[in-house]
Design a protein that fits this description.
Blueprint: H1 2-27, H2 35-64, H3 73-95, H4 100-109, H5 111-128, H6 132-138, H7 140-147, H8 149-164, H9 170-198
Helix pairs in contact: 1-2, 1-3, 2-3, 2-8, 2-9, 3-5, 4-5, 5-8, 6-7, 8-9
This protein binds protoporphyrin IX containing FE.
Protoporphyrin IX containing FE is lined by residues 40-41, 44-45, 47-48, 84, 87-88, 91, 113, 116-117, 119-120, 153, 156-157, 160-161, 164.
């Protein structure tokens, strides 16, 4: 329990480091010729990275048999949402100057914006229901079902990135490969559990009486 109490604030500060780096660049005038692009790219990158980090916690916890790792999952998920909000704010504030008409046209007409917006919307119920109170209110099973939306948000995020790049698709493909691995792991575990539950247990097997005649 003690190492977690020590690690939590350290990890929390580490999660804020990308924002601090960006703020420092802005303060020191090092955002380059197109600061809005730099901010959009950095916040978008960190949104997808935190989504993937959040999805890594369960496989890592199971494979390393370190149950305490689960205590960081909520923090990583909320940081994905936090960077998503910054990314979205950069778009509506710095890019579109709160011109909602232009924004809605963009969401409707540019497919990479449509899918990115969908990914962002999917994160909102997850952030809102991330508290212990909501887990109790919804009940473990329903809460878990709802929080599977993170898979779809991450898929939307990767498609968003794949659709927005014009030439070099290596980076979005790297994210896609990591996501495929993380989702593949879950499919594997699910198939394994289904296979196990279908196998009759030795206790329920009918016993064969062998009569020697
Ligand atoms: C789950 C939600 C989202 C994720 C994971 C995400 C992720 C990303 C990533 C990884 C990039 C590229 C970064 C780079 O080039 O290094 C990006 C760029 C961008 N995103 Fe998002 N994004 C999300 C939602 C949104 C939303 C809601 C909007 C606006 C409505 C948006 C608008 C943009 C724009 C305008 C760019 C830059 C496009 C360009 O360079 O031409 N994104 N995003």
């Amino acid at each position: 329990m003690k190492p977690i109490r020590f690690f939590k604030p350290v990890i929390f500060l580490a999660c804020l480091a990308p924002l601090a780096a960006l703020a420092w660049k802005a303060y020191s005038g090092n955002l380059g010729a197109n600061p809005i692009e730099v901010i959009t790219h950095a916040t978008g990158d960190w949104t997808i990275r935190f989504l993937l980090i959040t999805l890594s916690v369960t496989p890592l916890r199971k494979l390393t048999r370190q149950p305490w790792l689960i205590r960081f999952r909520r923090m990583f998920g909320l940081f994905a949402f936090f960077y998503g909000v910054l990314h979205f704010l950069t778009y509506i504030w710095l890019d579109k100057f709160f011109n909602f008409h232009e924004m809605l046209t963009d969401i409707a007409k540019r497919r990479f914006i449509t899918v990115g917006f969908t990914g962002f919307l999917l994160l909102i119920p997850l952030a809102l229901t991330s508290t212990a109170g909501w887990i109790r209110r919804l009940g473990g099973k329903r809460w878990q079902m709802l929080h599977r939306l993170i898979y779809f948000s991450a898929i939307a995020g990767v498609i968003h990135y794949l659709w927005l790049v014009k030439a070099d698709i290596r980076k979005p493909l790297q994210y896609a490969a990591i996501l495929a691995l993380l989702l593949g792991y879950r499919i594997f575990v699910w198939l394994q559990s289904r296979f196990k539950s279908k196998k009759p247990s030795p206790l329920s097997r009918p016993t064969i009486e062998v009569s020697e005649g």
